[in-house]
Amino acid sequence: MPLNPTLRPSTDADVPAIAAIYAHHVRTSLASFEIVPPTEDEIARRRMEVLKRGLPFLVAEIARTVVGYAYASPYRLRPAYRATLEDSIYIHPDHARKGIGRLLLQALIAECEAKGYRQMIAVIGDSGNVPSIGLHRACGFEHAGTLRSVGFKFGRWVDSVLMQRPLGPGDSQPPQI
């Protein structure tokens, strides 16, 4: 019987596990357009940037082992985008397709709505990334477009799929942030 994951805010102690999960995806998938996995120090720096902005950086753990993580970051840095975030979710390969991504994304959405954000964008590497596209669709995202052949990895051109979901009242009223 599978264990239910626990979701919680990430801590400094989670950085090695987060870095290992991300490194796997950098090396083996098109989910990330990075070519070389960043160091633990770089992952720690990126995590702190998210936290300094007051944004959520969550982990899922089973039996005290981090099995996935998700965070929100600014979609773009120009002031007009201040109410729009981008989500990122990565799951340990041994725990993929077990509902952990959905739990993380739902929690991330709830936290971002509570903070007053109004839109969330998913930038999904590879138009063939059916699991990520399906996850986002199941969590209320809609297809917003496909950027054809914007990345080159593993010897081929790769698309980016854009999906979008309103948060809270969405665009029905001005943002309060």
Please state the overall shape, judged from the principal axes of the Cα atoms. globular
Q: Which strand order do you get reading across the main beta sheet?
A: 1-2-3-4-5-7-6
Question: Can you write the helix and strand succession as a string?
Answer: EHHEEEHEHEE
Span of the ends, CA to CA: 44 Å
Instruction: Name the structural class.
Output: alpha+beta
For the largest beta-sheet, the strand count, sense and barrel status come to: 7 strands, mixed
Question: Which stretches are poorly predicted, pLDDT < 50 over at least 5 residues?
Answer: none
State mean pLDDT (0 to 100 scale).
Answer: 97
Over the alpha carbons, how many angstroms does the gyration radius reach? 16 Å
Number of E-state strands: 7
Estimated share of beta-strand residues: 25-35%
* Helix residue percentage: 25-40%
Tally the helices. Answer: 4
What are the key terms here?
single chain, 177 residues, alpha+beta, 7-stranded mixed beta sheet, 4 helices, 7 strands, globular
Give an overview of the whole structure.
This protein has 177 residues and is of the alpha+beta class. It has four helices and seven strands; from the N terminus they run E-H-H-E-E-E-H-E-H-E-E. The protein has helices spanning 15-28, 40-52, 100-114, 130-138; strands at residues 6-9, 57-62, 65-74, 84-91, 119-125, 142-153, 156-166. The chain has a seven-stranded mixed sheet. Helix 1 (15-28) packs across helix 2. The model has no long low-confidence stretch (mean pLDDT 97).
